[in-house]
UniProtKB/TrEMBL annotation:
UniProt entry keywords in alphabetical sequence: Flavoprotein, FMN, Monooxygenase, Oxidoreductase
Keyword Oxidoreductase: yes
UniProt record similarity statement: Belongs to the NtaA/SnaA/DszA monooxygenase family.
A Pfam match: Bac_luciferase
Domain of life: Bacteria
Species lineage: Bacteria, Pseudomonadati, Pseudomonadota, Alphaproteobacteria, Hyphomicrobiales
Protein name: LLM class flavin-dependent oxidoreductase
Amino acid sequence: MPKQILLNAFNMNCVGHINHGLWAHPRDTSHRYKELGYWTDLARTLERGLFDGLFIADILGVYDVYENSVDLTLRETIQLPVNDPLILVSAMAAATSNLGFGVTVNIAAEHPYLLARRFSTLDHLTSGRIGWNIVTGYLDSAARALGQTGLSEHDSRYDQADECMELLYKLWETSWDDDAVVLDRTERVYARPEKVRPINHHGRYYNVEGYHLSEPSRQRTPVLFQAGTSPRGKAFAARHAECTFINATDPASARAASRAIRKAVADAGRRPDDIKILVGITVVADQTMAGAEAKYADYRRYASPEAGLAHFSAGTGIDLSRLDLDTPIAQSADNGNAIQSNIQTARDTGLTKRKLLEKLSLGGRYPAIIGNGETIADELQTWIEEGEIDGFNLTRTVVPESFDDFIDVVIPVLQERGLYKTAYEKGSFRNRLFGHGDRLLAPHPAATLR
């Protein structure tokens, strides 16, 4: 039986996310991101398509590297304005029964003691459908806005993240026993005091003495996502992550990255299949090839490759507005705190501004597949088999039609081939992804703390 594809919708609580400029398309409704109905409609749509999850990205700063300003960022709404992602989840969970939610939160901006309660609350309210995308940040503008002089050194941010996770595991997994809550009205005992204990954590970054404020939720620890692909980021993922996102230009590069990640997971004492690997991808689908190509040409008329340059500038710390078209981008890299994988890719491929603009025809850098259901299914299957990945983060183009098109055109073909589920499995988000129950299992460090 072929491997079934895991599928997340990739979105953000803003107008312009990955494929920049398409907010200007007359059929796009992303400007409605401020309306609750926009999100509950999206959640119901994704559940109709049996998506595993909605993955919500987030940033805390602004993209101000390109032209040393936010002018283009504001004109093209490049992830600005951007609203809080966590607040959306309760409403979408109430509108659905099975869809999972992976929400991005930066550990540098949230104290672990309070963050633990927020995720436990959402795990309760979603009946175990919450996940956390762990990020350490990459924008100096965010660090300055939070009262710092700038980003701390790249690897030290992961050192802090490691300690943050250790502290969170203590709160989620050890403060309350499974049988602490008895809800005994006759004896007037809601929770048994001997089954609840404070945690005492004294480390380099955090000092916490206290009880976890939430009783045990279904998953306890949310499903853990992570996207760092620098050497330090991969080491962090190998220890903690259950799902990781990689940027790959083709199945061959995906295979190399996947093998490196699974080896790192095994070296960390976990099983290689304890982690699911997903690739970001854009799909333009129609019932016919001619229709898909016409739709792609239509989208390109509204896309903003320059906005894509501004996004890339923020991720690398390089002001691409100052570079000649054919100057190798990596020659200007001097910011070790930026997204190192972006700089390394630019270095490995000899990427220039001209080549990058060619890749940004839809405003975003992710590989684009244009076609009918059969041709798109063929390519996705190739990525899965040759790239040795588990699934995809599907970006949006024109909202909501890009998700509707994928559901109506592509998913039926994948189902016919046995590559995609025809119904949701029971249980929590974690159980649907891995099939071994609601809780993390050893040798994951969260499980071994119990």
